C-alpha cells in the first residue's frame, strides 16, 4: 500500500479506543481496476444464475454469523442480539431477491402484437450496468456491504462496487471476503462484486465512466456532494440517496383518552431504540394540550438510559444539534433520561414547544437530530393539528387515533392528503422504527428524505432502481430476449 493512502481505523464506541487493525484505502488506479473488472463482468453476470448466487451469499453469511457479530459489536457497540437479528435480516433480503428472480415479474414484460398500422412492440426491463453502493453507518449489515442496495442491484444483473463506511471497516472487510468466497464457489465472473475504502476512493468511484448508477444511505451533506458529482459527469447518472427524515407523529385527542400511557411508553421506546440512530426515528410528535399526557411522556422518557453512539462525529453532531434546539425561542426541556456509559454515549431527551412557536421557528425546529432526541409540539385539543411546518419530505408519518372516535377519524381523514404528500409510508397506531422487508414495503419519500421518491430502498421493489425499460419493435423472434418470445 502506498504510504500516502488513508488508513481507515475503526473504534470501539464503548471506550473510544481503536478496534482492530486499520484498513487501507484504495488508490485511483485500484478503483479504476475494480470498475474495469465490473464492466467486463456485466454481460456474463446478466446471463448468470443470479438467484443461486444470492442464495450462496446468504448461506455463507449465515455460516459465519458469530464471527460477523463479534467483529461488528466491537466496532458499533450495537449488541449481539441486535446484530444477530440484523445478519438474519440481511440474509433474508438476499433470499427475497432470489425469489424475485425466480418469479420473473420484475422484468415487467409487455407484448403487443402488430395490429393494423401499429407495429409489434415488446417491452422488458434490463439492468443499467455496474453500480456503486455507499454503505450506511447505522446498519453494519442490512444497509452495508451485503445489504439491500447490493442485493437488489446484483439481482437486477448489475455488478456492484461497495464503498465501505468508515465506522466499521473490519466488519465491512470480513463481509466482503465472505461475499467473494460465495460468488467464487458458484463460479460467478470475476469483478461482479468489489469493495473500496476511503472517502477519496468513494468520490473517484462515482466518477468512473463505467459506473451507471449510485445508491447511498447517509447524511444530507455527504449525499448531496455525491449527487452533485453524479450530475456533473459528462454522462450524468441516477443517484438514489436516502438523506434524512424527521418522521412526524400525530397523536389525536381520542387516542390520548383511550391509551395515553401506552402511547407515551411506545414513543419513548421508539425514540431511544438503537440510541436513536434510525432513519425512521420519530423526531417530531404533535400532541393535544393535555398536561396528564405530557406528564406520561416525561415519565416514560425519564426512565430511559442512553447508549454509546456509533462514532465520535455522530455524537458530536447530536450534542451540537441539541444545543441549537434548546436555544430556539419557546422550546423547553420536557424530560431527560439517564446518560449512557462511554465517551460517545447519548442522553435521551425530549423538548416541548407550542404549535405557534413551532410554526414561527419551523426552519430551525424541523432539523433532524440523529440520536435519541425528540421534539413534542402541543396543539389545542379542539383544533386540527397543523403539520405545515414539517419538512417537505419524510420517510414516514404516523397517526395515533381511536378508530371508534368520530372526531379522531374525521381529523385523520382531513390530514391524510397532506401526509401522503410529505411521506412515503403512513403508519397507524404504531411506530415508524422497524421496516418490514416485503413486497409491499416502500422505504422512500420526497426530498430530502430521498432523492428519488418513486423508488424504495427496502423490499422487493428496490430492484427497480437498477433496471431500465427497453422496447423491441418488429424484432425478429431469434433476436428477442427469451422472456419476450411468443
Describe this structure in words.
The chain is α/β, with parallel strands linked by helices and 486 residues long. The protein has two domains: 272 residues, Aldehyde Dehydrogenase, Chain A, domain 1 (3-Layer(aba) Sandwich), CATH 3.40.605.10; 180 residues, Aldehyde Dehydrogenase, Chain A, domain 2 (3-Layer(aba) Sandwich). Helices cover 39% and strands 17% of the residues. It is built from 14 helices and 17 strands. It has a seven-stranded mixed sheet, with helices on both faces. The mean pLDDT is 95.
**Total helical segments:** 14
What share of residues is helical? Answer: 25-40%
Classify the beta-strand content into a percent band: 15-25%
Give the beta-strand count.
17
Shape: globular
Radius of gyration: 24 Å
In the CATH hierarchy, what is the architecture of the largest domain at level 2? Answer: 3-Layer(aba) Sandwich
Low-confidence parts: none
* Average residue-wise pLDDT: 95
Instruction: Output the CATH topology of the largest domain.
Output: Aldehyde Dehydrogenase, Chain A, domain 1
The top-level CATH class of the largest domain is: Alpha Beta
Strand order of the largest sheet: 12-13-14-11-10-15-16
